[in-house]
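Agenda item 2: adenosine-5-diphosphoribose complex prediction
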Amino acid sequence: MKVSIIGAGNVGATCADAIAFRSIASEVVLLDIRENFAEGKALDMMQTATLNGFETRVTGSTNDYSKTANSHVVVITSGVPRKPGMTREELIGINAGIVKGVTENVLKHSPNAVVVIVANPMDTMTYLALKESKLPKHRIIGMGGILDSARFKCYLSLALNASANDLEGMVIGGHGDTTMIPLTRLASYKGVPVSQFLAADALKKVAADTMVGGATLTAMLGTSAWYAPGAAVASLVDSILNDQKKLFSCCVALDGEYGQKDICLGVPVTIGKNGWEKIVDVKLNDEEKAAFAKSADAVRNMNSVLSAAV
Ligand code: APR
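Presented output:
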């Protein structure tokens, strides 16, 4: 199984490392526009093979898309990350051009690949890739909700002083500081609603911390995060390549589901070998429905500037 990752920067390289470390794919190709950069990252990773005990072959390429040919999954991380004080939405002008060009190039060599979009603003970049590529909708998946859900479970575990692995929780809606919706009502600690253990104020704080989870790190690091984004992509790729049918919150094209059309937004979907398979209809309450509609409005607004950006 072959995975190509476009952009060998912080997120792309961490994603390749996680895929190799967990032996998710037999082959990973890292591609970057920077001369020798992806080659260097790939070689560094290959030198960990005997230390970490993996067999995945990681190679790098400077913009030679023929090396990515016949990939089962292509992950697009190429694009600029945000800097402190920036929103993900502010990246649209630069990243839209990059994502458009890269998507065209990868599909020339891997016409049957499932395409995973990571570059921000992710919901809009996913919509752009879907429209430009004209691929069947099931083969375009935006990665944001898996990361936001992992952050949600992390903050829940800190608030509860419990293992994050004993927690279930999902974040739907847009992948933006103000557009994501941590579903606190449905989060559970080993199946028991977390509201039995956390007061409303504490739960509100968990949701607020989750929403600015990325911005908090950007302020600390001077650029956006990579460990959790890379690991989140690896989990998504694992579910595709190994047909695991895992239920993740992913950004996919909606056609009436959750009351929305002609938009890509984060909803719970099962992920298997053909991409996303089934949207799971979670019964939202009125407050959650209103938040989802508001999130869709904000993302639709962002999508409307795409024609000027590419
Ligand atoms: N083709 C290939 N690679 C490109 C291109 C291109 N057209 N344009 C940029 N790149 C590469 C850069 O050379 C760089 O190595 O993409 C890489 C991006 O890496 P970083 O700058 O380290 O950014 P990173 O933190 O990985 O974030 C990438 O993911 O999470 C999102 O918001 C984040 O949009 C950003 C993306």
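Discussion summary: The longest helix spans residues 92-109.
Owner for follow-up: CH.
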